[in-house]
Design goal:
There is one protein chain. With about 750 residues, the chain is an alpha/beta fold. The protein has six domains: about 110 residues, PriA, 3(prime) DNA-binding domain (GIY-YIG endonuclease), CATH 3.40.1440; about 70 residues; about 200 residues, 3-Layer(aba) Sandwich (Rossmann fold), CATH 3.40.50; about 180 residues, P-loop containing nucleotide triphosphate hydrolases (Rossmann fold), CATH 3.40.50; about 55 residues, no CATH class; about 100 residues, Alpha-Beta Plaits. About 35% of the residues lie in helices and about 20% in strands. It has 24 helices and 30 strands. A seven-stranded parallel beta sheet has the order 11-12-10-13-14-9-15, sandwiched between helices. Helix 1 crosses helix 2, helix 4 packs across helix 6 and helix 22 packs across helix 24. It is globular. Bound molecules: adenosine-5'-diphosphate (ADP) and zinc ion (2 copies). Adenosine-5'-diphosphate binds next to helix 9.
Length: about 750
């Protein structure tokens, strides 16, 4: 028994974010994850035990500690592995344990109750002949037998059956019933809670074998075998499934999940955006029925509680959802799948700033299970890990059936201007659009409108003004009317004419989807057009409405942002157009080329997915950029090797880690002063022997890409280095020093480990 408990107080209210140590009285059988009553400033408050220990932290020694007063639940509210996960999360993402805990276990308000589950059938002659089975015991069995799903809360059971604790003990000892701890979401529903006993599970998983209507292809079968082999090893594994668009990855997931279920395990399937993949989710529901639960951000507190208790109690065994579903507390979790693992949506940009991939890996380390990463365009990190043998790699190289990857035409927009075409649509794209309209086929047009600042590009020769120090596009800011580098703060005035070709058509780039829609309506006045972007999809239903309408072919053209690139399968789409590949390409970020490649490949993957052949047009001012060319040639390998060498040379991830600190303040001069002070504190740290001879590198201070947001000015400093632990302690020291300086007053620090965009 441990002597001290570390208790996070007032957890349900999120107000206090601090833990305190309390003495554990010997008569309390306290466990991590239990809720307790403690005194705090002469008040009785509820808290959660996040740690049990025999040693106090140094600064606490000699302090007069109070005792834990009482245990609230009958058992741990939060399973101990999830408490461990919360600790890990707070360490690796540098945020408080309270924030981590609320993320890992968003419902600190339910309760844990003991339940009694009937195991035997009471008609059994064996039961009837048991010698000791007196009338009291028999009454107990009858009550259980009549209970819904043959399970009942212990309290209610004892009352209804009116039996002694000794008799209950006998029932348990002879294996006629069992006691288990259950998380009950809403207090009032606890008695009627519909919970399925173990026996019924099996029947359901047998049913799950029969859902598929076609045989797996050879490639699919090999992939399934590969993952099953990893599962059988019984050690934590990560597997990357690199399968081209339309190669049938979803079918592989389905088969694996059905196998895992048959073996008694549970699984999580993560998708980047649940609203776009509801199709997939629905088909899983139709195969696995009641065992599937779909988690999405639209769930209210009550529904979430219900979901959580159904998951904890084993009623739901497959969880499908976006990033936060990675925390689903499935008791027999064996497999976590991340579909489209390269997608940026897997990274949370609020505290804790975790990446679902890392959380999945940590959870499967705990359970000795498998993380399956699936993508047509794996992240450089994942593919590099596959190349070096750190993770297993499987690949599927051909599309299902007769469908083939579509040919891609790159259109040089500089030529279009030269030929006098000032429209945002090139002549080849216009012509192909017309063909689809005439043939009654459908087209998807993509425009990427991410980011708020713009880069400066010459419309005649494609020249992009970039930083001489960082090899990254400079961005134009209306404030100050200057171009700036967001890595090193290099500044320059925008040129009047192109430095390369002297053209006057060097202008500030940027068009919205609305503009595209209007212009296309001008070209095709009678053709129905749909638009899918952040403006048209504010309500979660709008997604479905628009996509369903397009699926029913009520519109010939769908215009949208990159949110359309994900996982959509429309058989009648035979043309895909990318309005401006340059928009991602010139983002001021070292991942810009990787994103461009991924986006173009995914987008192209939407065309020609059935027997009708597809075509893709990419418009760009950089027709020879290799990210564009490689994507057009469906050449992932070529792209990977080129890009990984570039990253290595420039010491960018995956060869290094980055921690970025964002400083926020309402006043610009204050934030600049703060950023400089933090910079100086970090520089000072470099003088220390611990950090002096390392490869740590300080970048900035510089204004953030979004230099002002919600009335706050934003500056940033990044630190780069190969060792993450060293980076963290270096930054920690620097920040501590900074907090002692007056320049830190009123500054908000926002720290992110391994940010996806910089
Ligand atoms: P991906 O996710 O790899 O892009 P999908 O899983 O969406 O590909 O599969 C593409 C299409 O092929 C879907 O319409 C799917 O129903 C179909 N499909 C998948 N596997 C098979 C198979 N073994 N036989 C026939 N059709 C299949
Ligand atoms: Zn030029
Ligand atoms: Zn620079």
């Amino acid at each position: 028994m441990f002597r001290y408990a570390e208790v996070l107080v007032d957890v349900a209210n999120r107000r206090l974010d601090q833990s305190f140590h309390y003495l554990v009285p010997e008569y309390l059988n306290l466990k991590t994850g239990m809720r307790v009553l403690v005194t705090l400033q002469n008040r009785k408050v509820q808290g959660l035990v996040v740690n049990m220990t025999d040693d106090l932290p140094e600064e606490m020694e000699g302090v007069n500690l109070k005792q834990v007063l009482e245990i609230v639940d009958e058992d741990s509210l939060v399973p101990s592995d999830l408490i461990e996960l919360a600790h890990w999360l707070s360490q690796t993402t540098i945020c408080s344990i309270a924030q981590s805990l609320h993320t890992v276990w968003p419902l600190l308000k339910g309760k844990v109750e003991a339940w009694i589950v009937l195991l035997a059938s009471i008609e059994d002659s064996d039961v009837q002949t048991l010698q000791w089975l007196d009338s009291e015991a028999f009454r107990g069995l009858t009550v259980l037998n009549r209970a819904r799903k043959k399970a009942i809360s212990l309290k209610v059971f004892l009352k209804r059956a009116n039996i002694s604790v000794e008799t209950l003990d006998k029932l348990l000892r002879h294996g006629l019933a069992k006691k288990e701890m259950r998380f009950i979401g809403t207090a009032q529903s606890s008695i009627e809670q519909v919970i399925e006993p173990e026996q019924n599970k099996k029947a359901d998983s047998d049913k799950s074998q029969s859902g598929r209507t076609y045989e797996l292809t050879k490639e699919q079968a090999t992939a399934v075998k590969g993952v099953l082999a990893a599962l059988e090893e019984g050690s934590p594994q990560t597997v990357l499934l690199h399968g081209v668009t339309g190669s049938g990855k979803t079918e592989v997931y389905r088969e694996l999940i059905s196998q895992v279920l048959a073996q008694g395990g549970d699984a999580i399937l993560l998708v980047p955006e649940i609203s776009l993949t509801s199709q997939v989710a629905r088909s899983f529901e139709s195969q696995f029925g009641e065992q599937v639960i779909i988690l999405h951000s639209g769930l209210g507190q009550r529904e979430k509680m219900k979901a959580w208790s159904e998951i904890v109690s084993g009623l739901k065994r497959i969880v499908i959802g976006a990033r936060s579903a990675v925390f689903a507390p499935l008791p027999h979790l064996r497999l976590i799948i991340l579909d489209e693992e390269h997608d940026g949506a897997y990274k949370q940009d609020e505290n804790p700033k975790y990446h679902a991939r890392d959380v999945a890996r940590k959870r499967m380390d705990q359970r000795k299970g498998v993380v399956l990463l699936g993508s047509a365009t794996p992240s450089l990190e994942a593919y590099a890990a596959g190349q070096t043998g750190k993770i297993r790699m499987l690949s599927m190289t051909t599309r299902i059936g007769t469908s083939v990857l579509p040919p891609v035409e790159i259109v040089d927009m500089r030529d279009e201007l030269r030929q006098g075409n000032r429209s945002i649509f090139s002549l080849p794209l216009q012509q192909k659009l017309r063909e689809r309209v005439d043939r009654g086929e459908q087209t998807m047009l993509f425009l990427n409108r991410r980011g708020y600042s713009t880069f400066v590009v010459c419309r005649e020769c494609g020249y992009v003004v970039s930083c001489p120090n960082c090899d990254i596009a400079l961005t134009y800011h209306t404030q100050g009317q200057a171009m700036r580098c967001h890595y090193c703060d290099y500044k320059e005035l925008p040129p009047h004419t192109c430095p390369k070709c002297g053209s006057r058509y060097i202008r500030f780039f940027g068009q919205g989807t609305q503009r595209v829609e209007e212009e296309i309506q001008g070209l095709f006045p009678d053709v129905p057009i749909l638009r899918l972007d952040y403006d048209t999809t504010r309500s979660s239903e709008a997604h479905h409405t628009i996509l369903d309408s397009f699926r029913r072919q009520e519109a010939s053209i769908l215009v949208g942002t990159q949110m359309m690139a994900k996982g959509l399968d429309f058989p009648n789409v035979t043309l895909v157009g990318v309005i401006a590949a340059d928009q991602t390409l010139n983002m001021p970020d070292f991942r810009a080329r990787e994103r461009t490649f991924q986006l173009l490949t995914q987008v192209a993957g939407r065309a020609g997915r059935s027997s009708k052949p597809g075509e893709v047009v990419i418009q760009t001012y950089s027709p020879r950029d290799s990210a564009v060319v490689r994507a057009a040639n469906h050449d992932f390998q070529g792209f990977f090797w080129e890009e990984i060498n570039y990253r290595k040379e420039r010491k960018y991830p995956p060869f290094t880690h980055i921690i970025r600190v964002l400083l926020l303040h309402e006043k610009e001069d204050r934030v600049i002063k703060g950023a400089n002070a933090l910079g100086a504190c970090l520089q000072q740290g470099m003088q220390e022997p611990e950090f002096g001879n390392t490869d740590l590198d300080i970048l900035g201070p510089a204004p953030a890409v979004l230099s002002k947001l919600r009335n706050q000015w934003r500056w940033q400093i990044s630190v780069k280095g190969t060792r993450q632990d060293l980076l963290r302690s270096f930054l920690h020291q620097g920040v501590q020093r900074f907090f002692k300086s007056p320049s830190s007053n009123g500054i908000i620090l926002n720290i992110e480990v391994d940010p996806l965009s910089t």
